[in-house]
Structure formats: structure tokens, C-alpha cells
């Protein structure tokens, strides 16, 4: 009986640590996705001399087939879908259910750590956007 109690206590102590590690991995994966997308859009501009036209969530912008990682058309690691806004040179993550605290960690990896300023920010009613330069 004591062994079962000890195992239960150890499991209870390990669970929060495991959740933090999992959350850190998802944050890193999302930040890496944004970096890869940014590089693909920059490469497209260098090769074609122009930004691609807008595209809906889950769609590759015209002229970018084979240039964007497959993750662009899939659900993000933290939920939601990506889309390319076109004229504003912005990658938008819509419908993510991630808490702002988690997205702030993504922001700290790819921008300034503040969801109200910089190239990665939250827009009410839209989601999170990452401006590509």
C-alpha cells in the first residue's frame, strides 16, 4: 500500500513538469514554423520581385507551390490555421485556442515578447499575426 502511495505522489509531482516540457515543445515548434514561413515568403520576393497574392486559411498562395513547408496548410501546433494576407505581408494564425501567456512565449522567441507591439502581435477578432519583412 505504501508503494502505491509513493508512486502516486511521484506521478503527481512529475505531471506538471511533463506538461511544461510539452508546452515548451509546442511553443518552439510554432515559432519555428513562423521562421520557416517567413524565409519562404522572403525567398519568393527575392526570386519573383513581388509578394504573393492573398490566400485563405489552409491554402498555399499562388506561385508558392513547393516553396512553403507543408505545415502552412495544416493546423498549427497550438491550434488554428495559417493564412497569407497578401498586401500587408502578414502571416495570420486564426482560431488558435492558445492562451495569451503561451503566445507571449512564442513572441519572445521570434519578436519582442509583447503581444501588443512588434512584428508578432495579437489582433482582436483576427488572431495572431506575424509581419514578414
In short:
The protein is of the alpha+beta class.
Shape: elongated
**Residue windows where pLDDT falls under 50 for at least 5 positions:** none
Radius of gyration: 18 Å
Kindly report the average pLDDT value: 93
> What is the number of independent domains?
1
Number of helices: 2
Number of strands: 4
Strand percentage lies at: 5-15%
Largest sheet features: 4 strands, antiparallel
The amount of helix comes to 40-55%
Oligomer: single chain
Structural class: alpha+beta
CA-CA gap between termini: 62 Å
Q: Reading side by side through the largest sheet, how are the strands ordered? A: 1-2-4-3
**SSE arrangement, N to C:** HEEHEE
What does this structure look like?
Helix content is 44%, strand content 14%. It is an alpha+beta fold and 133 residues long. It has one domain. The protein has a 4-stranded antiparallel sheet with strand order 1-2-4-3, covered by helices on one side. Helix 1 packs across helix 2 (100-110). The longest helix is centred in the first third of the chain and has 47 residues, at 2-48.
Name the features:
single chain, 133 residues, alpha+beta, four-stranded antiparallel beta sheet
Amino acid at each position: 500500500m505504501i508503494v502505491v502511495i509513493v508512486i502516486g505522489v511521484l506521478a503527481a509531482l512529475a505531471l506538471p513538469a511533463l506538461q511544461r516540457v510539452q508546452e515548451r515543445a509546442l511553443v518552439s515548434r510554432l515559432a519555428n514554423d513562423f521562421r520557416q514561413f517567413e524565409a519562404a515568403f522572403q525567398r519568393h520576393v527575392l526570386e519573383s520581385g513581388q509578394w504573393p497574392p492573398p490566400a485563405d486559411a489552409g491554402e498555399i498562395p499562388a506561385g508558392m507551390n513547393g516553396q512553403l513547408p507543408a505545415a502552412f496548410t495544416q493546423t498549427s501546433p497550438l491550434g488554428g490555421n495559417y493564412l497569407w494576407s497578401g498586401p500587408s505581408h502578414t502571416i495570420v494564425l486564426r482560431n488558435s485556442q492558445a492562451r495569451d501567456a503561451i503566445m507571449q512565449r512564442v513572441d519572445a522567441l521570434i519578436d519582442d515578447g509583447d503581444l501588443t507591439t512588434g512584428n508578432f502581435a495579437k489582433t482582436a477578432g483576427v488572431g495572431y499575426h506575424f509581419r514578414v519583412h
